[in-house]
Amino acid sequence: MEVLKIATAGSVDDGKSTLIGRILYDTQSLTTDKLEAIEAKSKANGFDYLDFSLATDGLVAEREQGITIDVAHIYFSSKTKSYIVADTPGHIEYTRNMVTGASTSQASIILVDARKGVIEQTYRHFFINNLLRVKDIIVAINKMDLVDFSESIYEEIKADFQEMIAKSEYKEQNITFIPVSALLGDNVVATSENTPWYSGNTLLDHLEGLEAQDVYEQSHMRFPVQMVIRPKQTHFHDFRGYAGKIYGDDLEVGDEITVLPSLTTSRVKEIYFFDQKFDKAGRGSSCTITLEDDLNISRGDMIVKNAERPNVGKQLEAKVCWMDTKELQPGTQYFLQSGSNRILAKIKGVSGVIHTDFSGEDITANSLKLNEVGNVNILMSRPLAYDSYTENKISGSFILIDAHTNTTAGVGFVK
Amino acid sequence: MELVTKDRNTIDPLEAIETHNNTATLAINPLESEAIYIFREVVAQFEKPVLLFSGGKDSITLVRLAQKAFYPSKIPFPLLHIDTGHNFPETIAFRDKLVKELGVELIVRYVQDSIDQGKVIEEKGKYASRNSLQTTTLLDALEEFKFDAAIGGARRDEEKARAKERIFSVRDDFGQWDEKNQRPELFDHLNGKISLGQNVRVFPISNWTELDVWSYIAKEKIEIPSIYFAHTRKTFVRDGMIWSADDAVYREEDEVVEERLVRFRTVGDMSCTAAVLSDAVTLEKVVEEIRASTISERGARIDDKRSEAAMEKRKQQGYF
Ligand SMILES: Nc1nc2c(ncn2[C@@H]2O[C@H](COP(=O)(O)OP(=O)(O)OP(=O)(O)O)[C@@H](O)[C@H]2O)c(=O)[nH]1
Ligand SMILES: [Mg+2]
User: Fold this and answer.
1) Cross-sheet strand order for the sheet of A81-87
2) A184/A138 same-domain check
């Protein structure tokens, strides 16, 4: 069975959690004990309907306030697919958690409240999905029951959204619009009788039709070394294996490789997965490889194919999405971590804050506040092997770690 | 032979090696690859990791994944078992055998010792359980050995508060989980940097479901304790759940003991783990049963039924 990773997005109260709860309910994915708990809690809250958001809002604070604070990961399966759903918060304060959920998802369902239309947070979330290059976007225009299932309202919102799409940078995104009522179930799993003017798929049918893909996508082979395995046992006395996960493309025994940043070269001798040897391993595989030559390789190095070298340097330009209350200021030090590589880095400068409503850039800005996205110039203490994010998602992205609090303060996308 | 990581979730219990046109292909699951990746990150990023081993199916699965992650080296960290004293005897025997085979170090710390030292007070009466007392023993053990990363087998599909947990989940000096202020976790860039006094809980099988675990156990032919299979046991019924009639489980006089054909879906402290009626005597039958089941695994855990937010509260205090 294929696994499809999806995330929700959209402003607070647009109905994201309710929608996921509704899908779970309509696909009989809620176990009896969980359903009973939802029934009891809905009743206790004085609702005469089932509050499906309770299926994902698992924290006490969330249930008290009726909002989502952090991502919930939900699992269900249909006949053809397994789904991993990241139900994310809409509140601006928790944007970092929305980015967390979206970063590992192939598809995003962006909800819009039909009564409110496209608002600031819709712009921001679409912008982030664009920045992350999430492949499939479903715009679910929700709460259609509260606008009498009006076709004209649906069309107006769709037109507003399309105006925004026209300004976006990542054009290969597949975008689909669906009018739904998460609360009542219209066009979620079952086709609605209230929208005769809509001839498209229901949300679930649409998801079922998507081709599941690895979020890291096909590109050049990248093998970030996580650790060196040296068993030093009699049987494996001279064994020196490099453990890591293969990204981008296949790796084969005999492949001519370059180690970065040292630029030393060798050939792949063996590929191990546990105690078995393989001639070839596909992307996504965590394996251990050995090389023909004894090279000095350690954690953080990257192994690539000779003909497909990435950039190597001490300086890079990136779009950074800031997630810390402490502002990003030029001159400050952070640890830059990309995969297994962590390097001390210094912010050289911020050359502008990008408006997340696609209205351009504020080039006078020289710092980044919480939830802002900006162009940042970074200097590193050691050379890093990197790609542009559009070419390779793993070697083209990184996190910035605050050197004092150790928190993950921002995420960067190499230009 | 060729290794591919297929985008499929449920691990096929059938033989994984397929042969087409003379090339044999081993298809591994992305979840398995992800778990191995996480194990390696833990060992590379932390000074003193430990694997929390309960003897249950999830921790047994973790052990297998750790073996794969570091082969041909041995598992480079010890196992820690917090013994409530109310274990099923089958799981203890199983644990000792496994540890011997793997040649890894096993550390055992006892809840009874925490009680004797007056650090925790034993619960009394009908719903008494040592489950929540474990937390103190666990935190003490982490401190005693200065472990900075504790690897556990919790899964996000188990419970609504667990659905919110990160893969690298930071705990403060008191072992507390600050659920409203978790670090963002992006792509495969796992941030294991911590300050003095903090430690991290790591969950390599976060994204696995109960069915994934069972299918994996079946596929890998992993040995598991016998209580996971249907067996005849002296039991009694309370609140619609089936309990083992054992000294460790409090029983009222009017609660009648009967022999039933049962198995356990989850193995915790005996006093809070209920059995289910089952005739599944093989792994294949167990997989079938899970697939068809309409109640969740933790539906049989009385510790979660104490209150709506039982798990979240225990986690805040440092529970696994
Ligand atoms: N009438 C109607 N109400 C809805 C619909 N969908 C959601 N709601 C209600 O809108 C409110 C907010 O729903 P949630 O699902 O919690 O919204 P959310 O988008 O998850 O909110 P955050 O996660 O906090 O951003 C709840 O009271 C829902 O019952 C719908 O289709 N129709
Ligand atoms: Mg929500």
Assistant:
1) A72-77, A81-87, A2-10, A107-113, A136-142, A174-179
2) yes
